[in-house]
Amino acid sequence: MLEFELPNIVPYNTQPWAWDFSIIAQPKNGDSKTFIVLSPLSIINRHIKTLSSLGIKPSIITTAAMFYTSLLSSGETLPKSVPVGCFCFDDNSIDFFVIENRQVTLLRGIRLKEEPCKNTTLMEEEILRSVSILKENEFADYPDKFFAIRINNSTANPAKILEKALNSPVEEIESAALYNEHPPIIDNLLTVSPDKFSAPTHGKAYINLLPKNIKEKHRRNSKRRQMALHALKVCFVLFLAFLSLKTSIWRKNRMLERCEQRLADISPMAEKLQFLQQQLSIIENQLQGNISTLDIISELYRVLPKDITVHYLTIEQNKKLVIRAQAKLLSQAFDCIGPLEQSYCLANVRQSYANQRQIENSVLIDFEIAADLQKTPH
Questions:
Q1: Are 42 and 56 in a shared domain?
Q2: Which range of residues forms the domain containing residue 344?
Q3: Looking at residues 293-321, what average pLDDT do you find?
C-alpha cells in the first residue's frame, strides 16, 4: 500500500525516489505507526557510483549519513575550519566521519556482530582501519582532534577505547550537545534505532535505501545462496547415508565371508558328526527294542535250513524285518517260514515274493520274507 501512496507522500514528484519503511509501533487499537525515509534516487546513485569506484558494492544504505549532514550544530561545539574526526558509538555499530568547514568529508559505517562492551578488541581494530583508510585514500585532511560521541546510552566507554586505539587524547561529547539546535530530529534519531528495528515484533531489521532493482538482485542472490546451502546440506546428508549404508554392507559381507570360511572349516567335522549320529541312532533303536542285530543274525542261522543263503537284512523304523535269501528249490523257500515263526524274536512271518532264475546248469530261487520284531525275547 505504501508504494501506491508514495506519490502522495513525497514532497516533489519531479524525480524518482529511493525509500524504505519500518513499523515502529503497533498500538492495541490495531493501527500501526510507520517510519518512512525517502531520498532522491540521484543522490543514492551518486554514492553507489563513488563506492563502486573504490571496489565496494554496498548491500545496505542506512539513514546515518543524512542525520550527520542535517544535524550539525551552528554553535561552538566543534571547530569551524580545522578538520575533526568523530567516532559515533551505538550499541552494535560505529560511525566514523570527518567534519571540515561544517561539511562531512568522509563517512564510514561499521556494524559489529557483538556489543562493544563484550569485545573491545574488534572495535580498536575497526578504529585503526578507519584512520588508515583516511590516510591512504586522502579523502580529507587528517583530523587535528578526535571526538567520541555516545548514542542510546551505550554501555561501552568510547573515550577510553579511542584513546587506547589511537594513543592520543580524545574528548567525549554527548549527541544532544553536538546537535542541540535540532531536538525534534534528535528524538527521532534516538527512537528509530537499529536495535528497535531488530525486535521480533517488527520484522524489519533496518531501513535500507538501496534502489529497488539492486534490492531485488541482493534478494535473489540471497535466495540462491540459501538454496545452494540447503542443497549442500541435503547432499551432505545423502553422502553420510550412502557412506553409512556402504559401511554396513561392507561389514555384513565381511561377516558372511567369515561365516563361510568357518563353515568350510567345520564341514569335514560335521560330516563325521552326522555319521556318528546315524550310528548312535541305530544303537539307540536296538537298545529300545532289547534285540540287537547280532541276536537276529544268530537266530536266523540257527533256525534256517543249511541250503538257504541270506544275503540281505534290513530293520526298518517300524520294527519290520526284511530278509532276502537264495535257495536251490522252491519248496525250501516256503519251508523256512515255519521255523522263523517259531523264533523268539520274530512274529507274523510272511513271504513277499519268490523268483526262479537260471545260472549256467543250475537253478536258484530268490525270495524275500518280511516279519515283525518282538519287543522282548520269549
A1: yes
A2: 293-373
A3: 81
